[in-house]
Amino acid sequence: MPHLIPPQPDLPDGTLHVAIIMDGNGRWARARGLPRTAGHKKGAEAVRATVKASARLGVTHLTLFGFSSENWRRPADEVNALMGLLRIYLRNEVDELEREGVCVRVIGDRDRFSDDIRALIATAEARTRDNRRLVLTVALNYGGRAEIATAARRIAEAVAAGDMTAEQVSEATLADHLFTADLPDPDVLIRTSGEQRISNFLLWQIAYTELVFTDVAWPDFAEEDLADALRDFRGRERRFGAVSG
């Protein structure tokens, strides 16, 4: 039986959801005179380390921006290398994730992925579905605007079919039609490598999320960097639009 995460006293429902934009693989490689693919390989090691560190540090939900819908515009050899790394991760890591009590989820449009990748995703999700120590969500072929548009289209179809009225559509209705409908909104969003933008990631979900930007490139991101980000987060007052107490 996996060790359950202790309740977080600063979060009333006991959850702690960390989202990460994993940026800087290419710059990390370029600074070392290496091909970009070397940065992606090192970044995959950082994913493994961050999942383990998250469980140790009391994170209950970890959401990683793995591959955006815009990333298909990159050179074909780089995209192929990223798909190869995704295959390796899904094949080689699921056994350990299952043992460690990690539930694996993938959000995004899977239609553009090859049949074997879609099958590997489905297998990973099925094998880890009942795990509760950490919910690991990976965004693949994901874009925040497209997610909201898809949700709006589904709601419009429901209204057209007479399953609900336009007057019944609320913020909660839209949230219920997102890929993340069964996840809590992120408490903190971390972006690595010094950039300070959201890049079309979880646009609806981060309305009241605390943002932490670090100059550390993703391949160098380690447990102490995650711990520093969580200390920063816990030192902030979250008012959700209200005034200070």
List key phrases describing it.
metal-binding; disordered N terminus; alpha/beta; 15% strand; globular; Undecaprenyl pyrophosphate synthetase; 6 strands; six-stranded parallel sheet; ditrans,polycis-undecaprenyl-diphosphate synthase [(2E,6E)-farnesyl-diphosphate specific] activity; 245 residues; 8 helices; EC 2.5.1.-
Write a structural description.
- The protein is of the alpha/beta class.
- The protein has a single domain (17-234), classed as 3-Layer(aba) Sandwich (Undecaprenyl pyrophosphate synthetase).
- It is built from 8 helices and 6 strands, in the order E-H-H-E-H-H-E-H-E-H-H-E-E-H.
- It has helices spanning 25-31, 36-56, 76-92, 94-99, 115-128, 144-160, 171-176, 223-234, and strands at 17-21, 61-68, 102-107, 134-142, 188-191, 210-213.
- Strand 3 (102-107), helix 5 (115-128) and strand 4 (134-142) form a beta-alpha-beta unit.
- It is globular, with a radius of gyration of 18 Å.
- Keywords: Magnesium, Metal-binding, Transferase.
- Mg(2+) binds at residues 23, 210.
- Pfam families: Prenyltransf.
- One of its GO terms (molecular function) is ditrans,polycis-undecaprenyl-diphosphate synthase [(2E,6E)-farnesyl-diphosphate specific] activity.
Please report the number of helical segments: 8
What is the number of strand segments?
A: 6
How much helix, percentage-wise, in residues?
40-55%
The coarse overall form would be globular
**Number of structural domains:** 1
Largest sheet: 6 strands, parallel
Mean of the pLDDT scores?
Answer: 93
EC number: 2.5.1.-
Cofactor: Mg(2+)
Active site: 23, 71
Organism: Roseospira visakhapatnamensis
